[in-house]
Fold this sequence. Notes:
The chain is of the alpha/beta class. 32% of the residues lie in helices and 22% in strands. Among the domains are: 1-16 and 279-391, no CATH class; 164-214, no CATH class; 398-599, 3-Layer(aba) Sandwich (Rossmann fold), CATH 3.40.50; 613-671, Immunoglobulin-like, CATH 2.60.40.
Amino acid sequence: MTRMDAFRNRVGGLAYGGDYNPEQWDPAVWREDVRLMREAGVNTVSLGVFAWASLEPEPGKYEFGWMDEIMDLLHENGISVNLATPTAAPPVWLTQLHPEVFPIMADGERFGFGNRLHYDPSSPIYREYAANITTKLAERYSFHPALAMWHISNEYGPTAYNEAASVNFRRWLRRKYGSLDALNEAWTTRFWSQVYTDWDQIEVPHIPRTWMNPTRRLDFKRFTSDALLECYLAERDIVRSFRDDIPVMTNFMRFFRHADYWKWAPEEDAVALDIYPNPADADSHVSAAFQYDLFRSLKGGQPWMLMEQAASAVSQWPLNVVKEPGRMRLGSLQALSRAADSVMFFQWRASRGGQERFHSAMLPHSGPDSRTFKEVVGLGRELKLLAPVAGTTSRSEIAILFDWDGWWGLEETAGLPRNDFGYADTVMRHYTPLWERHYPVDVVSYGSALDGYKVLVVPNAYLIHDEGVRRVTEFARDGGTVLMSFFSGVVDGSNRVRPDGYPGAFRELVGAKIDEYWPARPHEEFAIAFADGRRATSTWWREDLHLETGTALATYADGLLAGRAAVVENRYGAGRVVYVATLLEQAAFDTLVAETVAAASVRRRFEGVPAHVECSVRGDETHEYVFLLNHSGELSASVPVGGEGTDLLTGQPVAGEVELAPLGAAVIRLAHT
């Protein structure tokens, strides 16, 4: 039995609850909190996330009495604790004693106290004090009966430019390159006479005053992710040294650019996500779906944890609208539909003061008679009914590549034909037509196993390591379909342009040579003619393609590139490659994606279901659980389920079709076929 299996058994299936901050409240409130938690069906709380000052009010002086009391109280009421190390929020006494722990920002200014994440992750002093408080917590609570999980720090993220960061950066570079000769070669330092002759000459890259060596900046992004990971690992190993059967994790963030989660995920028992889809954005649930697919995929399809979401409005945007009735429930079920094994919130009780005093909570300022709390209680009842889905996961025949190195290469290093690429937006442009057509999608890295997939989608793989080239090439050669977008295969892992012409790594795969990249001028559009007679437009980007073994699925119909291929098909080995060399208008691109997937014989289970109804399946060897979620607040829908089963939310038998009201949902258990 894995640590996460034990955790699921302990909580009875799905974890339900949120961040609990009792140190912000008089102890007289605690018993009322716990009573209402039981009413809501809460079985898990995250405790102590920002409590360092309350646990260690002075250096070496610890006050655990309040934590003892609340841990005991929670256990007595059947509520498990996800106990946090409080190291995301160093107390003021630490920053006064050692101001060098404050991060220096890229502009050279010191990050002051009273903000969030006010520490340099490379600081040996910060790491020492973080290890001390973690050790004290582990000594005291490792065998407390309430403890069910360790939550290491919170939302790792600071980037620092301190001298300690430079020292650690040099240490990291020595491990990576071994010699200055190798570093100078990788960084192409003979350009602009930037050759290093001593390791101590290397510093972290501050804000560029003109332009900066792009590979130096790229390596600094890699280093920052690894420096943060070192902090996590140090604390994880401390708590593991006391007890090894408790799962350990930390919480990640949506589309977070500063940490390579592919490298982090293997170090955790489960990956966890904090996500706040904006209710003011009509399509925010589509982006959320991609994040859920990513987090399921980070550990090879294992269930993950929704660690934070909002019960209603948040407080971080210029306009913070509420979640209309039913949206919180629907969003929670959406996470479960894509293999989450928890529904957690920030936070349990709304704070009276502080930056997030207007951030919604499970128990809002308006109390237990509020609409939000009543919805929280209703959701808690339903999650008990959905306990059988815990531990199950999803399967897909389509994989989409998401790569932090490629993201950093496109957006962090500059000097490109155009410097306004948005990697996350590009990925979503490829993902959305698949989501709208109800295709299940996994997310992969270059290190992921690709066997079992029929289609590999590769969005803007500008920077790709040799191993990645090999994996994509073998996938096509062995019979897979690769759908690749423009400006891919251009540079190697050191951000150096690959030899022998564009698209470097993928010239043979694409079956065409690119003479030049032609970024579009503002408002410039191009006519596109497909080989089957369809017409479309494109904008933003073109490539001067010269076909070799490939054939044109579409050509430019006007301008200086008239007659040149805009979309190329190439047969490679037993597989097929479709390369899109321009930014097609959305409708034409969506059609191309759909046709490419259909030609690869990918199974489409929910054909004909409208796009506002989300259809997902998770299962095990015995059952499938079909989640049907109507994201429209106005339209109802009828959805075929393809068998006879039971709606776990109502207990009613289902056969044939399910009727969904606006914002309605069904979770159908079917015998596995």
